[in-house]
Write a structure and sequence with these properties.
alpha+beta, 60s Ribosomal Protein L30, Chain: A, 5-stranded mixed β-sheet, 3 helices, globular, RutC-like_sf, RidA family protein
């Protein structure tokens, strides 16, 4: 077990299996020293635990927890191409998409769920640039979707 997975275990978390693609793409690809994940939905055991718009059917706190699940799924995707999460030199960028009710403006707080998880698990290596974007709808009516880019140690 990698040191990163040991930290996950210390948080009461386990790295899930990679979520299978919903269409014609790969969950993650490597290009040189970088791994780019596709957008990760908050799938748990093959299904979404909650659907709907944040600020309407889904609370901001629920969505923040779902963003943590997205980040965990993204780490699983990274491991699938990197082989070992201890090879992560740093998280470079996080992009979070929040399916938002028309008057919801708390997207940064929702995406904090992903950012905070990466910090808890990777420490300084988890500090990253980020975008948090409100959108009308996401695949399968998911409330949140997260993609990450990481740099690997040579």
């Amino acid at each position: 077990m990698s040191a990163v997975e040991e930290r996950l275990a210390g948080l009461g978390l386990t790295l899930p299996d990679v979520v299978p693609p919903l269409a014609a793409y790969q969950p993650a690809v490597r290009s040189g020293a970088y791994v780019y994940t596709s957008g990760q939905l908050p799938m748990v055991d093959g299904k979404l635990p909650v659907t709907g718009k944040v600020g309407a059917e889904v609370t901001a706190e629920e969505a923040k927890e779902l963003a943590r699940v997205c980040a965990l799924n993204a780490l699983a995707a990274v491991k699938s191409v990197a082989g070992d999460l201890d090879r992560v030199a740093r998280v470079v960028k996080v992009v979070g998409f929040v399916a938002s009710a028309a008057d919801f403006t708390g997207q940064p707080g929702v995406v904090n769920g992903a950012s905070e998880l990466l910090g808890e698990v990777l420490g300084e290596k988890g500090v990253h640039a980020r975008s948090a974007v409100g959108v009308a709808v996401l695949p399968l009516d998911a409330p949140v979707e997260v993609e990450i880019q990481v740099e690997l140690v040579p």
